Amino acid sequence: MNVKSITYRNFRNIEDAALSFTPGVNILWGNNAQGKTNALEGIYCFACGKSFRGVHDRELLRFGASEGALSLDFCDERRDQNLVLQLYSEKARRMIKNGVTIRRSADFVGSFHGVLFCPEHLSMIKGAPQLRRAFLDAAISQLRPAYLAALSDYAAVLKQRNALLKREEESQAARMPLYEVLTAQMAELNTRIVQTRMKYIKLLDTSVGQFLEDMTGGLEHTALRYVSDADPDRYGGDARAMSEAFYALCTSYAGREFAACSTLHGCHRDDISITLDGREARLYASQGQDRSIALAMKLGEGELCRAATGEYPVFLFDDVLSELDAGRQRYLMQRLGGRQVIMTSCNESLFAGMDVNMIHVSAGSYENAVPQENGEG
Ligand code: ATP
Ligand code: MG
Prior knowledge:
Rossmann fold, Glutathione S-transferase Yfyf (Class Pi), Chain A, domain 2, 2 domains, 15 strands
């Protein structure tokens, strides 16, 4: 899968710009605060249906603008496609896929696939569980739009449930009937989400393990495991048994949830356990080791996307190269052959002598390097 071009109007600091890319490695380079990350953020909005910086549409609009738009042209093995996102400060966004207006995000994502790797991901191993869940959710949502729908339904039930638990002016007994209804809904959604995450992690584990061994010349071994209150393996994949067990778990701790005024169990608290040579990487990995695992996870995400869709996604790397040491930089550039990569960097010299498409970024404007002409003119 390749991005051919994208246009931006009133998106972040970009008033009006059109960028085109080659199928290989593309570098957006320039000084700080010029619009490198903004350009990537625009592309990634089409993969996830939202910004990776987790903001509202009005914050994506150029300061003072009331509307703006992004239009992405990309191709997969079968055909050329176009996606458009129209953003407004005062009303809901409009999503258009190949000329047809789409109502639900879950129907919009899933045609364009991208793997994003940004400096924040380098702390994925040691950081809060939320970072690891966000990694999983972004990766899986692109492959399974139904998963994205389940996540947003789960978030809605969780919000309602937490609001109910906080309504302390009412007695626990008075709140119990609604508590049970919401718990049953949550149990069913939790089962779907956990089963999908667990399957994904099992596949990812193999791929990440191979990348890490490859990167370290067979010296380091990692293992990934999904950690949850609800373990589908215990129920042999029986979704109903798993939902019932989850419902029983929550209701048996209802008193604690009412006392805590919040939901204590569920996939919003799950995590990925990552071990390095048998020990928790979170506790023992060096900074370099955790960067290697993060890199292996991103490359693994690309492999799983290819296994599911038949094609590599577009790799979007925001300023990570300078954060990696020379060995890992070489490994990354060499492993990315045959894939489209769009990378940002402040440092042009990192790419000297490489066969890459250089695009200079300055104050929200983008300029392709003029190709060298051979002896003419
Ligand atoms: P760095 O190398 O520091 O990461 P960058 O080129 O990636 O820089 P961006 O994150 O793309 O920088 O931001 C470019 C500029 O856009 C910044 O000055 C930022 O404040 C500005 N900006 C962010 N949001 C908006 C917005 N909604 N409207 C206008 N400008 C914005
Ligand atoms: Mg940036």
